[in-house]
Amino acid sequence: MPYNLLKQNINNLVEMSEEDINRFTSYFKPRIIKKKDFLLRQGNVSKFEGFVVEGCFRVFTIDDKGNENTLYFAASDWWLMDIDSFTNQTPSNLNIQALEDSKVLIINRTDKLSLYQTIPSVEKLFRVMFQKALVAWQRRLVSNHCQTAKERYQIFVETYPHIALKLTDKHIASYLGITHEFLSKIKKSLN
Amino acid sequence: MPYNLLKQNINNLVEMSEEDINRFTSYFKPRIIKKKDFLLRQGNVSKFEGFVVEGCFRVFTIDDKGNENTLYFAASDWWLMDIDSFTNQTPSNLNIQALEDSKVLIINRTDKLSLYQTIPSVEKLFRVMFQKALVAWQRRLVSNHCQTAKERYQIFVETYPHIALKLTDKHIASYLGITHEFLSKIKKSLN
DNA sequence: ATCCCCGGTTGAACAAGTTCAACTTTTTTG
DNA sequence: CAAAAAAGTTGAACTTGTTCAACCGGGGAT
Hints:
By secondary structure, chain A is of the alpha+beta class. The first copy, chain A, has helices at residues 2-13, 18-25, 83-88, 109-118, 120-146, 149-159, 161-166, 169-176, 180-189; strands spanning 29-33, 38-40, 48-54, 56-62, 68-75, 79-80, 95-98, 102-108. Chain A has 9 helices and 8 strands.
């Protein structure tokens, strides 16, 4: 039952009536994404938001110089969206790619926008979700400024050991904002 | 009329009835903060959220090694809060200090929490506000990973020329995540 | 089974940013 | 106004992280 995971996730964020939760989640459709396939490609306009039931995704952007930068990884129980493109219907700066065969629940934009209006607790759900995410992003920036790449690497693998297992060093390096060569040297220095 | 600026700011975020806006903003109390005084100190628990009417603030944290890191500056028309401490009532990691004599509108925690429940459009207001802020923080992290300090400095002064004028180089350096000595060398190289 | 492509490793030269210390200039305060 | 404090500058030595190029090894596609 993939919907149980979603419902549980919502329950951990806000108190919401059984009825509201059922109605809200009923708009999500399951979708299978094969390894290496894209849920969203840079340049396209995002029409959906997603919740990962199984598998793992990488959300990254490629800049003018061709550098890949990973914003975050989304494994089971994580949300997946390009807020900017979804909200403003502008071309996305993000790529969302499956790192392994994955299962997601998808809600489309039209449905979500109308649910904001018809189920007030959905506003609260996302207010709380964004609020939590904002704190995490602020912490990450400070961590980037105050800690060395080595420290950030250690904290990352300690904090997300299950996710780290699914990732190549290239992915981790692009998340930490360093080259994969340098990450290799960091790992060597840790022995 | 300081409340007009606040009302205008809200109107730019969401559509809200005259009545709701009036009721919501009526809970904000004006407060004067003198230059160098603190609206919040690291270690204390935040009981308020604020909106800057006049002046300028710096929101920063001091880490274990004694490094100051500036999360953001808040001049007129900006919101000012420690979301984490306000939400979870945990000791704050942030300092909020006035860089010049300033005027803010303050809402206390009890009032805000009850307004979330009594005025549904307040949920929406903050959902949209946090959503926008989240996009900005994601962009800032990518910018930090993909651009040099020199590039980030130039973009900062171009994007916020009016704020940059009020800041010392130390403040700007701690926002960019570099030492003030290095910022001095960057500025020299730009002549 | 084979090929090859991709991920990871290593080294050397280099660039970006830090540290510390000494000094000058500007701002604050009594 | 004077004195002191804070902000900014500069240089030299150092650390952190990058770039490029060469090499190794294993897993996927055919």
